[in-house]
Amino acid sequence: MQVLKSITRAKRRQILCQVRNLSMTLFILSSVSTFAQDTTSSVIQTKSGPVKVEKLASLVEPWGMAFLPDGSLLVTEKPGRLRIYNKGKLSEPIVGLPKIDYHGQGGLLDVEIDPKFPENKFVYFYFVEADLKQPDIKRDNGDPRLGTYQDYDDATLKGGAVARGRLDGNKLTDTKVIWRQFPKMIGRGHFGGRLVFAPDGKLLITSGERQRFEPAQNMTNNLGKIIRINPDGSIPKDNPFLNNKAARPDIYTLGHRNPLGAAINPTSKQLWIHEMGPMHGDELNIIVAGKNYGWPVVSNGDNYDGSPIPDHEMKPEFAAPLFYWHPAISPSGFIFYTGSLFNKWNGNALIGSFNSEALVRIKLEGNKVLEEERIWLNRRIRDLIQAPDGSVWMITDSKEGELLRMTPVAAK
Ligand SMILES: [Ca+2]
After folding, report:
1. How many Å lie between the centroid of ligand 1 and the Cα of residue 91?
2. Cβ distance 202 to 124 under 8 Å?
3. Which helix (H) or strand (E) is 352 found in, with range?
4. What is the pLDDT of residue 13?
5. Which residues form the catalytic set?
6. What is the DSSP letter of 345?
7. Who surrounds ion ligand 1 at CB < 5 A?
8. 25 has a pLDDT exceeding 60
9. What is the distance between the alpha carbons of residues 110 and 82, in angstroms, rounded to a whole number?
10. Do residues 100 and 108 lie in contact, with contact meaning Cβ atoms separated by under 8 Å?
11. Rounded percentage of the chain residues whose pLDDT exceeds 90
């Protein structure tokens, strides 16, 4: 029965892959002639007309962005630098950040500003920190924090953390860690790392499961979870698991793998996230307090060793994604477009993609996906943001990374 199910599913996916790959190929063919990696400005055809993409700056592994009220841009570089881009110039790294552990997927990740920034100047950032006390690998063999398959070349216990400090010119003052992944573990992947403020002023954090699977279903840790805290790090009085004494109080939802995109839907005011699936099965999820999104019990992808995982439809007790990608797009960065510069994109979800080297545009009607367009950019897109003028700015996932600006060719 299991075999039969796998074959049926494999067949179904094969057909789906073929259809999607064909449509991607056709689309790439239509846009490839107008775009090249080494140009600083290019025109690309989209379903809504031609757009211009310009390179604004070079950055090393940029990861997250946030606009300041004066129109300048905070941008992180994963090795541990926070800079300000303003009118064609990139600042020296801002000082006052804690020591950052930069290895693999870890380093300095997202940045966000306080909703009351004009009054308090608070800047929040997600970073990876090493534990103060490191284990003796030989002696502590069997410690679950070390895992069973890890590469001990980097045998540092580490975890994601969120800190905030007050921005004063080119420095952060009063920098304090307000939240930490628990427990710290060996391993360089799946930190999550996106920050977004909800309309009620709470800070929402995406926390990945550190490539350990099971923590996502275990309430005694905060890995593989969406986290909700007050801006000072304290726990909101209406968090969903406060009555469960065994659960960590910072948990908002569970059952997530590695979410690298989070945005507030401007219509429903709900948090939407996407998360990287295992081998395929990337998900778009609407976050509802207290729900379980299924990882690693269910997924519409398969394990990397080829073993199947039950699909979401097999276990309806878990919240299912409203949309998923098979084959994977490897999504990173997420906004809802609310500007008027791209007048046909209003209310659309815009998502960066590694695998398809594209900006993915999703047209929605309420919670229903009507249409998906992949705007091929020949670059792995790490994050994107809507600028005050309605243009879309993006950063690329590369040691030779770029800050890009996209505008319509015929702005109305
Ligand atoms: Ca799921």
Report:
1. 40
2. no
3. strand 349-353
4. 52
5. 190
6. G
7. 293-294
8. no
9. 10
10. yes
11. 82
